[in-house]
Amino acid sequence: MEQLFNILYDDEVKRIYLACKNKYLSLDEKYHSRFTHIEGVCQMATLLAKKYNVNVKKAQIAAILHDYYKYESHEEMESLLDSKEEIEECRQCPVLYHAYASSKALGKIFGIHDKEIENAIKYHVFGKTNMTKLEEIILISDYTEFNRKYQDCIEVRKVLLDGNFDKAIYLSTRYTIDHLVKNNIKPHPIQCEVLKEYERKINNE
After folding, report:
1. Are 69 and 77 in contact (CB under 8 A)?
2. Which of 7, 85, 89, 102 is the most exposed place for a label (fewest CB within 10 A)?
């Protein structure tokens, strides 16, 4: 995405982008599509940050790094985590491993110590209650970026781009929970809390 590279906020963001790109291109070819997804998330996050007056640089950094540790082993990712609580939470819900570990790359690899960006990366899988706008943007950009071709993602992307931000988060959460239930997987309690929060929001609009 040459066009994306040209709209990255500054040289620091471009440095992070190229480091992430080189990391993924050094992996087996089957993982290269993950970087295409990362570019898509960055593109969507940039669009939304500008629309909702959120710091574009922070949105781009969080988007680029949100899947930085997507394919490392659980053991390697655990070594990056700061607390027993984080490790236990990831063991109980392994899909969180890559998000929690990727959030640590921000400071440990790139020397950026910004809690707002770190949390946006950490909570991008299914969010949490009382999210900041940056956290919401990374969450919904992950679900709706333009490379996503699933029907649910296409529907939610249209809702999002029509300006119905809270409804987009509600629908993405609901569809994710429905998918888990259909596959006999119990949703994480926080997913259910997020669903209820955004249902209240759209009903009060």
Report:
1. yes
2. 85
Q: Which amino acid is at 126?
A: F
User: What is 2-148's CATH topology?
Assistant: Hypothetical protein af1432 (1.10.3210)
Tell me: the pLDDT tens digits for 143-163?
A: 999 999 999 999 999 999 999
Separation of CA 38 from chain center: 9
Percent of the chain surpassing pLDDT 70: 99
Q: How many C-beta atoms lie closer than 10 Å to residue 176's C-beta?
A: 18
Compute the CA torsion angle 124, 104, 52, 147 (nearest 10 deg): -50
Side chain identity, residue 119: N
Residues in the chain: 205
| Two structure tokens written together for 106 | 């921000």
Are the C-beta atoms of 123 and 173 separated by less than 8 Å? no
